[in-house]
């Protein structure tokens, strides 16, 4: 699959690159995408939720009223869950939500997601660029030139570039990652994938196995 290479002004450079069929032209596996997205979202959960149960409440253990003769239900402790300020019944406890997935399934999921984006013509190849200093306006100009302003976009760099990353950080609709940080969720979540030329070799070497 051949794609024209654009510059940061959104114009064609006259060059074309060939996207590998082993990454951008596979038979999409929707179930693999589902499993990998579910794993990613589950792994974002901290699992630190906790409420105090009866044994953890600070309070008197004195029997608050006599056992019989009051005409009401018996009660043994002010810490009982039936009283205001008492412990919580079956409250949440810390839990590890981490899920694991076979590396081959994760690789298939990413290739499937990239293939679907390529079929939708939502993949843009951009020549490598850099900014002299971190500035949101510079990154916004690139988005405007590519027609991606206000749309969810994912920029994939070959190597870490702090100036480009910091320039995009204030923009909620855009995200910048390196080829090694590429995940199925981020691919699916974006409307357009912008691949810098320097990232293509890394993506293909990571996924065409």
TrEMBL record:
| UniProt entry tagged with the keyword Flavoprotein | no
Spell out the residue ranges making up region: Disordered. 45-75
GO BP, one example?
A: translation
Q: Which Pfam families match?
A: Ribosomal_L4 (PF00573)
Keywords, A to Z, come to: Ribonucleoprotein, Ribosomal protein, RNA-binding, rRNA-binding
Q: Which GO terms describe its molecular function?
A: rRNA binding; structural constituent of ribosome
GO CC annotation, single: ribosome
NCBIfam families for the chain: rplD_bact
Q: What does this protein do?
A: One of the primary rRNA binding proteins, this protein initially binds near the 5'-end of the 23S rRNA. It is important during the early stages of 50S assembly. It makes multiple contacts with different domains of the 23S rRNA in the assembled 50S subunit and ribosome. Forms part of the polypeptide exit tunnel.
Please describe the quaternary structure of this protein: Part of the 50S ribosomal subunit.
| Family, per entry | Belongs to the universal ribosomal protein uL4 family.
* Protein name per Swiss-Prot or TrEMBL: Large ribosomal subunit protein uL4
Organism of origin: Zhouia amylolytica AD3
Instruction: State which gene encodes it.
Output: rplD
């Amino acid at each position: 699959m051949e794609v024209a290479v654009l510059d940061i002004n959104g114009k064609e450079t006259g060059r074309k690159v060939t996207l590998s069929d082993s990454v951008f032209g596979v038979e999409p596996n929707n179930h693999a995408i589902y499993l990998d997205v579910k794993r990613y979202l589950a792994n974002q959960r901290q699992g630190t939720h906790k409420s105090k149960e009866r044994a953890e409440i600070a309070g008197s253990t004195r029997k608050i009223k006599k056992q019989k003769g009051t005409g009401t239900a018996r009660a043994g402790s002010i810490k009982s869950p039936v009283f205001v300020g008492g412990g919580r019944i079956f409250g949440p406890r810390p839990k590890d939500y981490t899920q694991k997935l076979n590396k081959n399934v994760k690789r298939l999921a990413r290739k499937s997601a990239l293939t679907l984006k390529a079929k939708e013509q939502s993949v843009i190849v951009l020549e490598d660029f850099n900014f002299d200093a971190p500035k949101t306006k510079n990154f916004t100009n690139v988005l405007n030139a590519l027609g991606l302003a206000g749309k969810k976009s994912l920029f994939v760099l070959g190597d870490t570039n702090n100036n480009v990353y910091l320039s995009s950080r204030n923009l909620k609709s855009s995200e910048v990652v390196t080829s090694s940080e590429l995940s199925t969720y981020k691919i699916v979540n974006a409307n357009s994938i912008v691949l810098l030329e320097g990232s293509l070799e890394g993506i293909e070497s990571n996924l065409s196995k």
